[in-house]
DNA sequence: TTCAATATGTCAATCGTTTGACATAAAAAA
DNA sequence: TTTTTTATGTCAAACGATTGACATATTGAA
């Protein structure tokens, strides 16, 4: 690979001059500028970003740790994060923790070793203290870690409220909630909170099932939901904590010959792209994924530039009523 | 951030010694090793991977260019690629081209500038020559570029054949195929080829509609499929070139009150995780995504290490018969 | 005692780029 | 003509690590 020296030699100038045209600093005549460009062209020269990063002590990299990019919600989130990062010259290193503590820790170390400019954490299996030691520009999704670390979330409580209220208002008598893992102290737990409070408040019978830590074991989802619906055949409303879980519910209702929304109503959470393509199209609570992603990138950049930033970034949700309710 | 010098100073040794324990080279007594580890611990030292990369002229980075990670197929692919890359100490830079020629070109340049060790291309909007100039370890998904560049694909022709045959064998009289964009010279076009040949061979009436380049405009998909089914109400079988497209078909059939599989049968392609959760569960052609991802990573590594590798990596597909046929 | 193995140090170059300090020369402006 | 501006060059340090060549000292074994 050609270096700046090769370019200088070919253009008949010094590396200082080449660097000057490369970085638009100091005086440069059009003639030399052209010579230099031509030499770069001829050699197919690409400045070595690694060397640049080393020197300016900035990698223009953002680390993204999520459970897995193959989960539709995180896939969409990652897509938008990369989009907005790219707009301002940042690159994204992607890390799938699979909600494995060891992996998550490893990834944090790895990202620090690689001197990423900031870390966006969408996976949280570790204790608060472990994150506090990270001592790095961080943005968190759905988890409050400390007074300094900014976080992003949707209005989880509001979302839970919208979903639960809808089921009750539509006349459900016994409603179920399928929550994420409640041990991970996520703000998403507020969805469950809202569910519990509202169902109690309205005197509606309710059950909650909690998913295991390993969210990606398909068969487990299935048996869990199946058990739930078979044990409580009178459930006529389900609030699932994600659209993917809602898909499982729809599927199992279909297999159990429960008609949606006549026999049972279903509300999801996230509003992933495919939600509107389910049959029937899924009623769900929309998180503004794109705006949240944009915000995450901005929060990293602001920290890098030492600009002031908001610590709490809670985004409004929206009820997308479709045909499962 | 502490450097190797700080560690050396604190441990009371030279940087050479620290480097020796860091890289396990030469003679080191247990005592010094411990001192050094302790100093690293105390300073919370992380070797600067950027400096290391610069020196060894290897970034341990793989660039991944795909249309978008938010598409379920590519999300799953990306997830596995990152998984296998991580296993052998590689990191993944994701790039969503959105099938935009300019972006794709930019990303290739960017990845080269960042001296990634190899590029996995799952997005192909450029001409063959443009890739030939890349002159870099590359692996390609679903596209044959030159004699040197290895590619990975599923047995597209076989898959198209399985899908079409199934529809015909199930008694469909008029079948439709929704293809990807045929201008991009992808191997996926062989799915359409198979469809055309088999329907002709069996004397079954057939229509093909082709999606536009911008695969991510939702409304466009919808109107296209709607038009197809309204213009040809006698279509009783559809082979969609991806599961996501199949989801649209199912959805529209649902809206048009066409019963699946009684009135119309549907076959998808990919077997994304959600496919089995569709209602009805989608019959589809399974690509072995995980194996393909693993292969992609291996092909990069082999090129980096200058080991011999296969140029053609065509993976068998499998008919997953579920309830839409 | 002598030799080899073990353990550490010294020094400096290297990876590719940026940048500051300073020198010099030509062109343009006063 | 003199001064200022513009254009380029020279040189060397710095970013943070690795590594090779070589020196020196301490062990332990032969």
Brief overview:
By secondary structure, chain A is an alpha/beta fold.
Account of the 3D structure:
- With 325 residues, chain A is an alpha/beta fold.
- Chain A has three domains: 4-47, Orthogonal Bundle (434 Repressor (Amino-terminal Domain)), CATH 1.10.260.40; 61-154 and 290-315, 3-Layer(aba) Sandwich (Rossmann fold); 156-288, Response regulator (Rossmann fold).
- Chain A is 44% helix and 18% strand.
- Chain A contains twelve helices and twelve strands.
- Chain A has helices spanning 4-11, 15-23, 30-43, 49-56, 72-87, 101-113, 128-132, 156-169, 189-201, 218-231, 243-255, 289-304, and strands at 61-66, 91-96, 118-121, 138-141, 151-154, 174-179, 205-210, 237-240, 265-270, 283-286, 312-315, 318-320.
- In chain A, the strands form two sheets. A six-stranded parallel beta sheet of chain A has the order 2-1-3-4-5-11, with helices on both faces.
- The longest helix of chain A has 16 residues, at 72-87.
- At the A-B interface, α4, α5, β2, α6 and α11 of A face α4, α5, β2, α6 and α11 of B.
- The structure holds a DNA duplex (30 and 30 nucleotides).
Per-chain topology:
The structure is a homodimer of 325-residue chains.
Chain A: H1 4-11, H2 15-23, H3 30-43, H4 49-56, E1 61-66, H5 72-87, E2 91-96, H6 101-113, E3 118-121, H7 128-132, E4 138-141, E5 151-154, H8 156-169, E6 174-179, H9 189-201, E7 205-210, H10 218-231, E8 237-240, H11 243-255, E9 265-270, E10 283-286, H12 289-304, E11 312-315, E12 318-320
Parallel strand pairs in A: 1-2, 1-3, 3-4, 4-5, 5-11, 6-7, 6-8, 8-9, 9-10
Antiparallel strand pairs in A: 10-12
Chain B binds a DNA duplex (30 and 30 nucleotides) through residues 3-5, 13-17, 19-20, 22-23, 25-29, 32, 47-57.
């Amino acid at each position: 690979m050609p270096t700046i020296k090769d370019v200088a030699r070919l253009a008949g100038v010094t590396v200082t001059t080449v660097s000057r045209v490369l970085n638009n600093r100091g005086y440069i005549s059009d003639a030399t500028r052209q010579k230099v460009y031509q030499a770069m062209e001829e050699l197919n020269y690409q400045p070595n970003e690694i060397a640049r990063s080393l020197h300016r002590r900035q990698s223009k990299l953002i680390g993204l740790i999520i459970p897995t990019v193959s989960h539709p919600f995180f896939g969409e989130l990652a897509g938008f994060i990369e989009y907005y990062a790219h707009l301002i010259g940042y690159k994204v290193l992607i890390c799938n923790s699979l909600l494995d503590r060891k992996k998550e820790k490893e990834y944090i170390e790895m990202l620090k070793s690689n001197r990423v400019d900031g870390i966006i954490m969408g996976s949280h299996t570790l204790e608060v203290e472990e994150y506090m030691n990270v001592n790095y520009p961080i943005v968190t999704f759905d988890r409050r870690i400390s007074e300094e670390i900014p976080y992003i979330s949707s209005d989880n409580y509001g979302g839970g409220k919208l979903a639960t209220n809808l089921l009750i208002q539509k006349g459900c008598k016994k409603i179920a909630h399928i929550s994420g893992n409640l041990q991970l102290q996520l703000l998403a737990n507020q969805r469950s909170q809202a569910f519990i409070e509202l169902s109690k408040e309205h005197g509606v019978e309710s059950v909650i099932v909690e998913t295991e830590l390993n969210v990606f074991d398909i068969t487990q989802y299935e048996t869990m939901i199946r058990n739930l619906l078979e044990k409580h055949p009178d459930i006529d409303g389900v609030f699932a904590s994600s659209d993917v879980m809602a898909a499982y519910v729809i599927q199992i209702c279909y297999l159990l010959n429960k008609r949606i929304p006549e026999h049972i109503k279903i509300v999801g959470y996230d509003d992933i792209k495919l939600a509107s393509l389910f049959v029937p199209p899924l009623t769900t609570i929309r998180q503004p994924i794109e705006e949240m992603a944009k915000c995450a990138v901005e929060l990293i950049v602001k920290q890098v530039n030492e600009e002031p930033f908001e610590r709490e970034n809670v985004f409004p949700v929206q009820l997308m009523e479709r045909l499962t309710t």
